[in-house]
Specification:
Strand order of the largest sheet: 9-8-10-11
Largest sheet: 4 strands, parallel
Number of helices: 26
Number of domains: 6
Protein name: Putative licABCH operon regulator
Pfam families: HTH_11 (PF08279), PRD (PF00874), PTS_EIIA_2 (PF00359)
Helix content: 55-70%
Strand content: 5-15%
Number of strands: 15
Structural class: alpha/beta
Organism: Microbacterium azadirachtae
Low-confidence stretches: 1-7, 165-179
Keywords: Repeat, Transcription, Transcription regulation
Mean pLDDT: 83
CATH topology of the largest domain: Mannitol-specific EII, Chain A
Length: about 650
């Protein structure tokens, strides 16, 4: 048996990876520079790779080299992939094959050394930590020990990890099932029938979670086809579970020609109940499906968060829907499952304050009910809370407008009506002036929509036609958006000038993880008398609930409790980037908020996230902002742009 040397194998992996990712012709010189070898060695590597299977791996031509048919097959078997990808290959093999595999044979198949394989097995053991699964080894053979349900949960986790890293929705099916079981295309009509049947039973379907449920159904179908059913359930019969199991039995048999046993049907029905459906109001009132302690905890948590963040969360219908969601969260905890949310990253980066409110709500629920929440669960809470706040939001950011339209019969009334219909809640028309010579200097609204020339500055006036056109509507919408953005950024600029100081600025940040950085920046505010040690400890505890890296460039660590003596922000700028949770950031803003500055909390958190989501602005700030004065100037310049 021939095992390639570690250094040589690593370079071949990089060469193959570059060819697969580029998906086009690459010159031998570029490949040599990328891998760190000579062009002659590149030719040797290509020849060796092409000898590894029946299909051509790398094609050569006048343009250099490109990946051929066999390249992806070689990568799928674990070669040329990251340690994490090789770990996943091993885990999938262990799930699929009851007798496991021989370590020497597997090392040869993956084109790696035995020592590398042993390291990858260590990663697999770490992945299984905290689950009912474990690796058992007898001599040179390794196998997986654990229940069938635990194996399916592991397959789901692997599929979701691959889906998170792929822009292709079908990647999870392909990566988990390897082409076996129901196809992705076959799931589409099945989904339509499933939603229709659940609706007939009186349930609302969570469309965001349905792909997750379909993935589990596909996994179950594959495992049953492979001779790995789940044993019959030992739990007492539940009428809700039985009704959904009956629906699933009929649909799976019709769509896939597959008969599931009692254990599989019970497992899938409970999964549907915990992730996919919410009972309609009539069903809730008739059956009393919300536990009393859940209802009470949701009410208490909502009241606590409402006081802390000065928001209104006391609507009965909102609390009912939220309690149903938390009831399902309890189901998921009992079933040892989670619900993925495809909008988690978007919600966290675009609505940091909303996500922060959801974090506080989840933390309160954890203390009252012992329910853990990952970021996906927090995102679902944010969607519930955000939906309610959007409906009940105040009109503080509404753009005020004066319409100037000299009177001619009812022309001004027609124009006022058309503006209202076309622009809706985007603006608030304060007055309509029908004179040809209005007192322009007395107009105090944000914008003036005028059908006649105006001496006012261009940024305040939108010239429109007497009969409003689509172009007029679009121009007004852009002007209103500009006013709102200017207002928001103006607030931020004013707040930042109050809360940032040279005494609380650090460059460069230590690359030692988020806790070390939080303590380092916190010590600056501690020295200024802004916070005490408890606030710093609470900030670290908050970070453990959910990462405060709200964009790829910025983290804003802070405590859930607004107990700072005054509001201040300590800024740290990295020389490049620093590790933060599972990613890296370039700027860290340790935010200390006092209870008197809730409005500042909202302004600073949301607008800092907005500024640091713009790639060009981020790079200018980080590249130049090595002193406080330059950092502040660049930040203000980014706000003004």
């Amino acid at each position: 048996m021939t095992i390639w040397g570690t250094m040589s194998s690593g370079r071949k992996e990089r060469l193959l990876g570059l060819l697969i990712e580029d998906n086009g012709w690459i010159s031998s010189r570029r490949l040599a520079d990328h891998v760190g070898v000579t062009t002659r060695t590149v030719r040797n590597y290509v020849a060796e790779l092409n000898s590894r299977g029946p299909d051509l791996v790398i094609e050569s031509g006048p343009g250099g080299y490109r990946a051929a048919e066999g390249a992806r097959g070689l990568r799928d078997r674990g070669y040329g992939s990251s340690p994490r990808a090789r770990r996943d290959v091993l885990v999938r093999r262990l799930v699929d094959v009851d007798e496991g595999f021989d370590v020497f044979e597997m090392a040869s198949e993956l084109f790696i050394s035995e020592s590398t394989l042993e390291t990858d097995l260590g990663r697999a053991r770490a992945m299984l930590a905290g689950t009912p699964l474990s690796l058992r080894r007898i001599g040179d053979r390794v196998r997986l020990s654990g229940s069938e349900i635990a194996r399916r949960r592991l397959l789901s986790r692997l599929a979701h990890d691959e889906l998170d890293a792929s822009a292709e929705p079908a990647a999870a099916y392909r990566g988990t099932r390897g082409g076996r079981g129901p196809s992705a295309q076959a799931m589409d009509p099945f989904k339509v029938d499933l939603v229709r049947s659940l609706d007939a039973l009186g349930y609302y379907v969570n469309e965001l979670a349905i792909s997750d449920v379909l993935l589990h159904i596909a996994i179950s179908a594959e495992r049953v086809m492979a001779g790995h059913p789940i044993d019959a359930p030992s739990a007492p019969e539940d009428p809700e579970v039985s009704a959904i199991a009956h629906v699933l039995q009929e649909l799976v048999e019709t769509a896939f020609g597959l008969e599931l046993g009692e254990g599989d049907l019970d497992h899938l029905a409970r999964l549907v109940l915990s992730r996919l459906v919410t009972p309609g109001r009539t069903k809730v009132e008739a059956a009393g499906l919300i536990d009393a302690d859940v209802h009470g905890a949701v009410r208490a948590a909502a009241a606590h968060v409402a006081r802390a963040y000065a928001v209104e969360l006391d609507d009965e219908q909102f609390l009912l829907r939220l309690a149903l969601h938390v009831q399902n969260l309890r189901r998921r905890v009992n079933e040892q499952t989670t619900a993925r949310n495809p909008l988690t990253r978007t919600l966290k980066s675009a609505y940091p304050l909303l996500f922060e409110i959801a974090v506080a709500f989840a933390d309160d629920l954890h203390r009252r009910l012992g329910l853990p929440s990952d970021e996906d669960e927090i995102a679902y809470l944010a969607m519930h809370i955000g939906g309610h706040l959007e409906q009940a939001r105040r009109t503080a950011d509404v753009v005020t407008v004066t319409i100037v339209c000299p009177g001619y019969y009812e022309l001004h009334e027609i124009l006022r009506s058309r503006v209202g219909r076309s622009l809706g809640v985007a603006i608030d028309v304060i007055q309509v002036l029908t004179r040809v010579d209005p007192d322009w200097d007395s107009l105090t609204t944000d914008l003036v929509l005028s059908t006649i020339p105006s001496p006012l500055p261009p940024d305040r006036v939108v010239r429109i036609h007497p009969f409003l056109t689509e172009a007029d509507v679009e121009t007004t919408q852009r002007a209103a958006a500009r006013v709102r953005r200017s207002r928001r950024l103006g607030r931020l600029r004013a707040e930042l000038s109050r809360y940032l100081s040279e005494a609380a600025f650090l460059y460069p940040l230590p690359d030692d993880g988020e806790e070390v950085i939080i303590r380092k920046l916190g010590s600056l505010l501690l020295h200024e008398g802004v916070v005490d040690q408890t606030y710093i400890d609470n900030t670290i505890a908050r970070e453990q609930i959910s990462s405060t890296a709200f964009t790829a460039a910025l983290a804003v660590p802070h405590a859930l409790q607004m107990t700072a003596r005054r509001t201040a922000i300590a800024i740290g700028v990295a020389d490049g980037s620093v590790r933060w949770g599972s990613g890296r950031v370039q700027v860290v803003a340790f935010a200390a908020f006092s209870g008197n500055d809730r409005a500042a909390f909202q302004t600073v958190l949301e607008q800092l996230a907005e500024v640091f989501s713009e790639g060009e602005s981020v790079q200018r700030i980080v590249r130049r902002g090595r002193t406080f004065a330059v950092f502040f100037d660049e930040l203000v310049a980014a706000i003004d742009r």
